[in-house]
Amino acid sequence: MLCDAVSSFFRNAMELYCAGQDNGTAAANAIRSRGLRIWDDSVSYDTSEAYSFQQLLQLLKISKWNAPTLYLPMLLSATAGLQIAEIVRIHFDDIDLDNHCLDLPRTHKDYNGPRSNIVLSMENTKTVYLPDIIMNEIKNQEKRLNALQEQDAKFNPFRYLIWSQSGRQQQENFIKKPYERILSKCSFPAFPWRSFLKIRLTDIEIDELEDFLGYETSMNFGACEIPIDKHDLMNLTGTTYF
């Protein structure tokens, strides 16, 4: 399936004069020799305890404006199928901005069902392709980090995508309290965070997410802002939040 798509891509490129030669056969052979495979969407998967599109949209809206520390992790889990343990270990250097993907090590917990955006290899790695809505947020996150590092060059020296208030790698359980607060604002049944990995969005639904949620631009980007949940800020300052 993947090899056929690659061959077709190069064939079309030749017909449209976008390529000087047809490298489809060589590329397909390289994929076979490296043992790459892509999740097959025709395979059934468990959708029990999975949020609907409208429920996910509501969760993302609440997160973006009331718990921004969870917004990007929630996007990564729901649209790219990443576990929170993987997300907190991502460095900006892991991300290929040009090809909209990132490379991660495979884990023994990679049992989340078929996903068309994940390519697995024999080298115990996987390539995860990311939609535009995530890439835009990643670029904004990097701007935030660059602004913070201008003030403190030692802040987040390993350039983690998700960082703690001290600039270190975020702990996996950092989602617990803000996620509970988000769920308390919703009337539908609450599922554990891992249920985001069961969500399968169509291309149209991903486009609708971007239309509804939008994304920050350089015009409305606060250069010196640290993404922080209001309740976490109150805890840090010893103030009660009402």
What can you see in these coordinates?
This protein has 242 residues and is of the alpha+beta class. The chain folds into 2 domains: 2-34, no CATH class; 53-100 and 130-237, hpI Integrase, Chain A, CATH 1.10.443. It is built from 9 helices and 5 strands. The chain has helices spanning 2-15, 24-34, 53-66, 71-80, 84-87, 132-151, 176-184, 203-213, 230-237; strands at residues 37-38, 95-96, 101-105, 118-120, 125-129. The chain has a 5-stranded antiparallel sheet, with no helix packed on it. Helix 1 (2-15) runs antiparallel to helix 2 (24-34), helix 3 (53-66) runs antiparallel to helix 4 and helix 4 (71-80) runs antiparallel to helix 6. The chain is globular and about 55 Å long. The termini are far apart. Mean pLDDT is 77; it is low at 31-45, 216-230 and 232-242.
List keywords for this structure.
242 residues; alpha+beta; hpI Integrase, Chain A; 2 domains; 5-stranded antiparallel β-sheet; 42% helix; 7% strand; disordered C terminus; DNA_brk_join_enz; Integrase-like_cat_sf; Site-specific integrase; DNA recombination
